Structures are given as C-alpha cells and as structure tokens.
Please model this.
Amino acid sequence: MSGLNYADHKTFSKYTLKWKELHFIKKNIKKREFVRWFRSQYDFIICYHGCRPKDVSEYYRKGFFPSNFPETMQAFEQLLDDTGYHFPYDVSHVLETYQGKTNRFVYVILDDEDFIDRAPHYIIYGSETMLSLAENVSPTIKTRLRNTGIPTIFHLKVPLARISDCELVSLYQQIVSSNGSMEQRRLHIFSNYTIIIEPSLGADCIIGHSHPTDLLYDQHARQYYQNKTARCCACST
Ligand SMILES: [Zn+2]
Model:
C-alpha cells in the first residue's frame, strides 16, 4: 500500500493536518487497516492536558501522573480545615465514581480549544476529582480552587508508541465522516476526542504550555471566569 511519505507528516495534529492527508485517508484507507497505516505514517500525535497547578515547573520535572486518592484526600482535608469546615462527611461514593479512572489514567485531548468552550472546568478548578469532592461536601471550597494555581494548557508531543490501538481507532470514523471547510473538518475530527494513557506520561513530551485569558463560562458557578495571569515562572522553559 502506498502512503504519504513526507518527512513533515510524522506528527499528526489539528493544526498541521492538510486537506491532502484527509483526502488520502478517505480514498485509500479501510477501517480495518487504519491504525496500522496510521502508525506507519506518524510517530507522534499532538495532545493537550488542562490543569491548574500551583507550580507549573513541577510538570517539567516530573511529568504527568494519575490522581493519587490518598494525596487528593489529604489536600481536600486541608482545604476543609482552611475554610473552617468541621462537619462529618462521606465522600466514598465520589471516590468510587473515579476509581479505576482518574487514579489509573492520564487524560489528554486532541483539541486545545475544548478547554475554552467545552470543558473549561479543568483549567478553572484543576483536578476533576477535587472539584467533585468540593461539590459534594462544601461548595465554598470551589472558590478556593478557583483562586489557587494558574490555568494551564500543556502542549504535548506524545509518541504513538505510548498510545494503544483502541484509543486511535475512532479517529478513522471522525476523519471519514468529516465534511465542509477544512476548519469544520478539523473541529469534527479533533474536538471532544479524549485519549487515555497508562500509567503516566513523561515530561519529555511537553513542547510548551499556555495560560488562556479567554472569557470562559463556568457552569459550576453559573458565571463567567477570566484568568488574569498570562505568564508564570516556567513560561520561558
Ligand atoms: Zn507559564
């Protein structure tokens, strides 16, 4: 089977995908051979991870890991203490919801704009587990989360060797069903596409980061939110 052999096509990403590549896949690649073909053509895929760290540089030192529930609970209890919340609570159902998910996988997505218009809570509040704990025990903690750390989107160049076949297979359907302008096709293919990585992702995947200052709609607080901190001490890293 012939393929596209351009050296600059070794990385698959929303911002570099060309009409020619899309057309080639639609015309020549069958669903059952897609993943194998994809791996033969690309070495990396550009992904994004949204969070709200206190220290951005820590990710550059340590990389990305799933949530550690005991550590999350320790931080949560500290927040309760800080805000003067001293009532009994039971969060076992919250942790059960995330068990085997956030404490097992690192989540990345293929479209950085999803953190602006589809799921801004990752950069407004940080950890989804922590946000859920706050909502189930003391919603006032959400204000604290919203004012701690800096909204950050990490830009990652992830080796395809780190991604399992089942995470890539849906790309085929997204590509062959995409229509309209290139902009519309990019949105259709990349938006709302999550990839899970196990057990962690190294810091060497980071190719940059940004701190969006767009006006975001915070559906958890039913109000708009805008980050005012556009730079951190790791911005020149
Ligand atoms: Zn920064």
Remarks:
- Residues 53 and 149 are 5 Å apart (CA to CA).
- Confidence is low (pLDDT under 50) at residues 1-7.
- The pocket of zinc ion is lined by residues 56, 209, 211, 231-232, 234-235 (CB under 6 Å).
- The radius of gyration is 20 Å.
